[in-house]
Amino acid sequence: MDLRLMKYFVTVAEELHFSRAAKRLNMAQPPLSQQIKSLETMLGVQLLKRNNRTVELTEPGRVFLEEAKKTLKQAEHALKAAQLAEQGLIGRLSVGFVGSAADGPFIHRLTSFLETYPFIELTLKEMTTSQQLDALLAGEIHAGVLRSDVQHPEIHMLEFTEEPCMLVIPESHPLASYQTLSVHDISSDPFIMPPRHLGPYFHDIIIGFFHSYGCSIRIAQEAIQMHTIVNLVSSGLGIAVVPASVSHFQRPGVVYKHFVEPPPHVRLSAAWRKDRVSQALELFLNHFKA
């Protein structure tokens, strides 16, 4: 059915007057009357009762009016959706992220992105760096937000932010009252670290930092997520080095300390497959570049 006929009928039904309806539609009255008659013939029902002075809806006309309004609204929505899709302002994105990213500027930019592009459906999946790289190559996510310097022929990387690292130690630690701590103060303590095979970039930076000052550390426990590591520190199982943004996670029983030495820095980057760049993904990446 021609949507124009529906629009003509809805306008007449709202005005209950052919002349006023014709004026709203910027057309002459006789053609409008002919179009309504054609619609009634097509449907095989009388939609309007009319005489020289009044126009009224019949019962079938009232039912058809409600359904016609829904159809026109849905058609308008479909048109708008198609136009937004053409501009890349509508679509779906699946994005992996490391847990520590949720404590830093990434989450604020993410909120801003969702406010700017409300028609893009975003699905977030917390994953380790290794899991994100596997998911990217398998086509299971469109982008990853991770800590890595990986070089892969199919993956492109974009740095979002770089931040220093801090120490997190138990509140009961003998050095908890110190404002800053040297690597030499704590190198003999048991450390809690993420497993290297799940995040070699972060792991190697921390180990290399201590080695640069002639120290080696003993990894006593391993945990995947930064918040889990902080919880283990609060239990007195060791100390840890974490990105500074993790210090927003205020867990009772721990204190965060700066290094005396210039601290190691870690990057937070976006990763995506070079052959899977949609307009929605470009908007996502450009938003984080700003």
Automatic annotation (TrEMBL):
Gene3D superfamilies: Periplasmic binding protein-like II, Winged helix-like DNA-binding domain superfamily/Winged helix DNA-binding domain. Keywords: DNA-binding, Transcription, Transcription regulation. GO terms for cellular component: protein-DNA complex. GO terms for molecular function: DNA binding; DNA-binding transcription factor activity. Residues 1-58 form the HTH lysR-type domain. Pfam families: HTH_1, LysR_substrate. PROSITE patterns: HTH_LYSR. It comes from the Bacteria. Belongs to the LysR transcriptional regulatory family. This is LysR family transcriptional regulator.
